[in-house]
Each structure stands twice: as C-alpha cells, then as structure tokens.
Design brief:
By secondary structure, the chain is α/β, with parallel strands linked by helices. It is built from 17 helices and 15 strands. It has a 6-stranded antiparallel β-sheet, with helices on one face. A 6-stranded mixed β-sheet has the order 8-12-13-3-14-15. α6 packs across α11. The radius of gyration is 48 Å and the shape is elongated.
Length: 559
C-alpha cells in the first residue's frame, strides 16, 4: 500500500509530506482548493503524463515521490527483477519535472524509463473517477478478474500448463518440418557431399601431421640435391672431365720428375699436392657417405602433398577449417539420416501435437464451464449492489464468448467482457461506452465492492465518484466504499458529507495566501475539526448547530 507521498513545487504546493495507512482516507475541501493537484502529483509518481505547467512558479523543477510497502508476492517485485533493480524493504517511486516539461523517473533511486514507471504504477494504484476510468473498464483485465472472483485455480493452472505443452510440441513439430523441407531441397547435394567426404575420410589433426611430413620431406630433398651437386663436383659424371683427385695425381707425377737427389726445389710443391690429394679423397669418401644416408623420397612427398592439397580444397569448398572436416562429415551424415528418418519422426510429432491440442481443448472447455458458472455468480452479486446506488434499471452482464481459434492462449478459449445496459431497452455494451460519467462511477464502485478480494492492485483512488448524488444514494456509496476499504487501501476525494463520514482518516485540502503567494496545504483533522468540516459540507459557509448535529449523526457521535 501507499505509505508516504512527498510533493515539492507542484503548482500551488511548495512542500507537502503526507503519510497514509490502511483503510479509508477521505480528502475534502472547497472547490479549487487543490484536491486535483494532489491526484495529479500522485499520478506523476505513478508515471502519468507530465506537463510544463505543473512546476510551481519560480521553482527550477517539481519533485514527487511515493513510497509503498508490498507483499513479497506482489508482481511489482518481479518487474524490478526484470530491470535488475535491487529489492528493498519498501518501493520508492520518484519523478522530477523541469520547467521545460522534461522529466526523469527513478525507482529505488535507479533511473528508469517513464514507460516502465507507468507499468509499475498501474500495478500499485488504480484510479476511478468520472473522467478517468482505469482497471475495471479495461476489457483486457476482465478475464483475470472473473477468474480471481470465482474460478478454481486448478482449472486456470491446468489450461496454462496444457497450453505450454502444446506450444512446446508445436514448436518442435514446426522445426522438424522446416528441417525436413530444407533437407529435401538439398538431398542430392547432401548425398554427393557425404560420398565425397567419406571417400576423402579426413582425420582429426591430419592437416598438421601432413604439413610436418611435407616440410621434412622437402628439407630432405633439398639436402640430397646439395649433396649430389657436391658429389658431381668431386666426381664428374662426364668421363672426359678429370676429377680433382685425378688432376692432383697428374700434377704430382709431373712434378715428381723434377725432384732428384741434387734438385729438391719442387719437393715442397709435390708434398702439398700429395696432401691435397689425400684431402680430396677424404672429402670424396665423406660426401659418398652423406649420399648414402640422404635418400630423398619424391614419391612419398608427392603423395603427401596430394593428400594435403585435397584436404585443403575440400575445406575451401565447404568453407570450414581443415580440422572441422571430420565433424562436417558427421553433421552431413546426421542431416542425411534425418532426411531418411524424418518422415517417421514427423509422424510421431504430429501425433503428439494432436494429443496436446486435444488436452488443451479439454482443459479449456472445463475452464469455460467454470467461467460460465462464475459469470452468473458475479452478475448476481453486482446486480444486488446496483439498486442502492440508483442504478436499479441497469442490467450488468458478464459475457463469456468463444475466441477465434487463432487467438487461443494460456488463458484459454474465452473472451470475457463486462457489459452494461444502463436503461431498459438499451442494448448492453462496454462499460465505458454505454454508461454516463456518474453511472459509470457508481457501476465501478459496485464492481469494486464485489471484486475487492480479487484485485491485484493494493491501493485504490476514488475521485469524486459521488458527484451529483445525495441522500440515501450518497449513504449507499459511502457504505460500499467503506466495504472496499476493508480489503484495500482506499483514498477518496469527495464533496459528499455522507461519504466523508465513513473515513478512518480525514484530510482537508485548503488554500491560503502568504507573502502574496497562494499555497495549498493539507491538514489531518482531529475529531473536533472533522465534525466542523462535515458540518460545513452540509450547511455551506455558515455552519449552524443543526448542521453540527447532523454531522454528529453521520459520524455516529451521541448527543
């Protein structure tokens, strides 16, 4: 319920702090005192439309905050969870309006959009008045209200669960049909791709292994080419060419003829030639050994490259990395198997979907029967409330009509509407289209009396629903508002003394001039002050003893 309303610089209100409790709080005051400003201020905190003219003259902005205490099961908490707003012991809504009309909204001191604030506010406070009808006049709420009034919860839960199961299976069926259609369109390609990849038979990690093998074989081939080139230089294949060792031996033989016992001048050169010949022969032997160890395998390199290039070509064709080819083959085989087995699977899902649809329709039919019974009870209960409210000629009807098949949902197959025929011979129609403003206000009150226990909104504001009535009708209105306040927190703006006398708390709204500026104030009345206020409402400007006595009668005060 609403516990606190703080208003700063809104029209004629400079600073106002109001605290509220359970039960019925009445607000009275002369016309133009500012009662509508209070409701407008509360509306701002609840996300209603803001206007530039709401900011008090000379102030930079207007600020309104409303604090609520709520049951932990109230839907407002789930709405906060959706926005990642932390839960606290209370719920604080705040709205700031600048002089240019722009506004900022906050929930528990976290900034939110005004649209979210409005949705949240609608779950907290409902306003009923001659010029603004919410909640009960909204056809979208009628099904839930009827269900809460008199439909067993197991019927509602059963339909909701049957609908979810039907939707789940229907979704699976639609997905299976779509998959089967896609597979059928690409069946030829699928079979060719599976055959091609199966023949290629890619293995996980094969690309890396092949790349390493290829690199090693290429390195071995380059090594063999270098050894062969060196060997060709040491031992020419051309028989006409003399190899280095032979050339050295020939040179040594030629110089050997010059060396005698008497002439040793060529001995050093001859010794060098002999050493060179030995070195060349040693190099030739070393190169020969290297050649024996370096055995290139061009056929293996060729087959390795063919395999590697084939894998990479397949990967490019299917636009996947080479390493994903094995998984791709498995996926394609699965799709092909799904195509081969799809008809049987589709038939199974179709049978399950038909069974789920039957279950939903059976549950929805039982819910329709329960709603029809509850509708008759609700009609009787509301009709019993109408005569004292001067609506004895009105006929209230709860229509439970079948929805088109394509509009079935978790709430079943019913379109529930509250209809009213305000006068004899007049066709029944929507509440806000048929009744006049005063009739509609009293009809809403009758509905609220009957549906109070079903209301998901904890606080209710009645804005002059008693306008234009008096005497016994006003007393009936007051008595019914008091009954609603036994279950809900009710705030009532009234000009009727019979209604005002029913309040548990009485607030008086007044204007006064201070320093040549008009201000609106709100005063909580004592018992004596309340007696005077109700007497004023009865008598006008001049309060008589007769008016005070009449006020005592309304208040139930002896003497």
């Amino acid at each position: 319920m609403l516990t606190h309303l703080s208003i700063r610089d809104v029209v004629l209100i400079e600073r106002l702090e109001l605290r509220f409790g359970p039960g019925l709080t009445v607000l009275t005051g002369e016309t133009g005192a500012g009662k509508s400003i209070l409701l407008d201020s509360l509306g701002l905190a609840l996300g209603m439309r803001s206007e530039q003219g709401l900011v008090r003259h000379g102030a930079p902005n207007a600020l309104v905050s409303a604090s609520f205490t709520l049951d932990r099961a109230h839907p407002a908490w789930a709405m906060l969870d959706e926005q990642d707003i932390p839960r606290e012991d209370h719920l604080l809504l705040r709205r700031q309006i600048s002089v240019d009309g722009r506004s900022r909204a906050f929930v528990n001191d976290q900034q939110v959009g005004v649209g979210f604030l409005r949705r949240l506010g609608e779950s907290l406070v409902e306003v009923q008045g001659q010029h603004e009808q919410q909640g009960l006049a909204d056809q979208a709420t009628h099904t839930g209200l009827l269900d809460a009034f008199g439909v067993p919860p197991e019927h509602i839960a059963g339909v909701r669960e049957a609908w979810r199961e039907w939707r789940r299976i229907s979704t699976a069926l639609n997905e299976a049909r779509a998959a089967l259609e896609r597979a059928a369109r690409e069946e030829e390609w699928l079979r060719h791709a599976v055959e091609e990849l199966a023949k290629l038979a890619p293995d996980a990690g094969e690309e890396e292994t092949l790349a390493k093998t290829r690199h090693a074989l290429q390195a071995a081939e380059r090594r063999a080419e270098a050894i062969i080139a060196a060997q060709a230089e040491i031992t020419p294949r051309d028989r006409r060419s003399m190899n280095p060792a032979a050339a050295l031996r020939a040179a040594a033989r030629a110089l050997g003829k010059l060396v005698t016992e008497t002439d040793q001048s060529a001995a050093a050169a001859l010794a060098a030639l002999e050493r060179a010949e030995d070195a060349v022969m040693e190099a030739e032997q070393a190169i020969t050994r290297l050649a024996e160890l370096a055995e290139p395998n061009p056929r293996l390199l060729e087959s390795t490259e063919e395999r590697l290039f084939a894998l990479r070509a397949a990967a490019r064709k299917h636009q996947v990395p080479v390493g994903e080819l094995p998984q791709l083959l498995e996926n394609l085989r699965t799709r092909l198997a799904a195509l081969d087995q799809g008809v049987a699977g589709l038939a199974r899902l179709e049978a399950e979907e038909s069974a789920a649809a039957r279950s939903f329709r059976q549950a929805a039919t039982a819910l329709t029967a329960a709603r029809t019974t509850a509708a008759a009870l609700l009609e009787s209960a509301v009709m019993a409330e109408l005569p004292p409210l001067r609506l004895e000629k009105a006929v209230f009807t709860v229509e439970v009509a079948p929805l088109p098949a394509d509009r079935a949902g978790p709430a079943g197959l019913d379109l529930v509407r509250f209809l009213i025929a305000a006068n004899p011979g007049q066709p029944a129609g929507p509440l806000d289209k048929v009744a006049s403003g005063g009739e509609l206000s009293r009809l809403m009150l009758a509905l609220k009396v009957v549906l109070a226990r079903a209301s998901p909104v904890p606080s209710l504001v009645f804005d002059e629903v008693d306008s234009g009535i008096g005497g016994a009708t006003a007393s009936a209105v007051g008595e019914r508002i008091a009954r609603v306040a036994e279950r809900l927190q009710v705030m009532l703006v009234t000009h009727s003394p019979q209604v005002a006398a029913r309040g548990a708390v009485h607030l008086r709204v007044a204007k006064f001039v201070r320093d040549e500026r008009t201000e609106t104030i709100v005063q909580k009345l004592t018992d004596t002050e309340r007696r005077e206020e109700i007497a004023r409402m009865l008598a006008g400007e001049t309060i008589t003893e007769a008016a005070r006595h009449a006020a005592d009668v309304l208040l139930g005060v002896d003497g």
